[in-house]
Design goal:
Layout: H1 2-19, H2 28-32, H3 46-49, E1 61-66, E2 70-77, E3 84-85, E4 94-100, E5 107-122, E6 135-152, E7 155-174, E8 184-204, E9 209-216, E10 219-231, E11 245-252, E12 255-262, E13 268-277, E14 284-289, E15 299-302, E16 308-317, E17 323-332, E18 350-362, E19 365-382, E20 389-406
Antiparallel strand pairs: 1-4, 1-20, 2-3, 2-20, 4-5, 5-6, 6-7, 7-8, 8-9, 8-10, 9-12, 10-11, 11-14, 12-13, 13-16, 14-15, 16-17, 17-18, 18-19, 19-20
Main location: membrane
Pfam family, one: Toluene_X
Subcellular location: Cell outer membrane
Amino acid sequence: MRKILLFLLALAPAISFAQGFQVNLGGQKQIGMGHTGTGLAQDGASIFFNPGAMAMLPENSIQAGISPLFFKSTFNPSGSNDLYHTLDKTATPFNAYAVWGPKNAPWKVGIGVYTPFGGLTDWGHNWIGKYTVESLDLKAIYFQPTLSIRLADFVSIGGGFVYDIGTVNLQRALPIADANGNDGQAELKGHGHGFGWNAGVYFKTESHITIGIDYRSKATTTINNGDAIFTVAPSLASSFPQPNTFTASIPLPSTTSIGFGFYPTKKWTLALDANWVAWHVYKVLAFDYAQNTPTLQDTYSPRNYRDGYSLRAGAQFKPVDRWAIRAGGGYASTAVQDGYVTPEVPDANRYYFTGGLGYRAANHLDLDLSFEYEHLLSRTQTNIETQLSGTFRSNVYIPGISLTYHW
């Protein structure tokens, strides 16, 4: 029994990181327009959405934004009327970009720092799945220096190197009681890094349609010397050696995107994006402890994720020069096949709606606000590893704000 428990414990943090909470909160203008941006050249967030568009930006700029994320999930165990809710916690994905190039030059350089993966889930200590997970705090921060070149008035290209830093902290109960009947506790925490790249091309057509194509590569994040901390009865301490560490490698998938911009009048901008996410790279999970015991063994488990896609649409209306009104929405498919859904980040097909406002506060200063509501379709599952069985219902609420100085 203890071998099974520790096998599941080993799987938990890497599974949650790999299926991830793919937030993609790259910029407030783009969020407000349904996360469209591949076929648009709006601001420095092109570093994330399509580096090829950066050379077409009319100005240099520095911008920063934050999008507090409120994840609400409910679990109803099979055959029961009980409901368990996640606690109120706030994740803080952010983005920051700087773009510069000489006036009239055919090139621009830039740097982007953003958080495409992350999540904060806390089910507390007394829910039915406490032996699967109690809480998870996950962050992935990407750093991307970028170069973009305008090859002609109608086409530009760009690309950047990606360095990512990931951190994870997962806590769960162990069904191994001490003399007072208290459960054991386990905490797995660590940080790692990986490498990748992002490249794109941007076109302007004679029919006043812009087209963008972007490819963000896979970035394999390797966690070395993560801390495995166990709190158990003294009689069981030899089965849970302390201190102990772990190593794991997690492939974060590549994303291929195509986007279109339409400009029916000077006041209106319409956009469409389609994205294909190559989750199939996540086939197996290997997890290596520095110290093993008969209870605590290294693991190797199949995951067999499938590719996912998303479709996005958005619009911007500028009634006057200083104001912009934005709205959009989209649909995204889950990559997690039946039998592999976990409470760390309960995953399902989802749809979302967004809105936003832009205001030019001064000649060189813009304020942008955004809001997103995301609904995950309810999903009834029995996990093949933990046998946790029931129905997850989840919603996400994401307000956001950014400031941009441009010249």
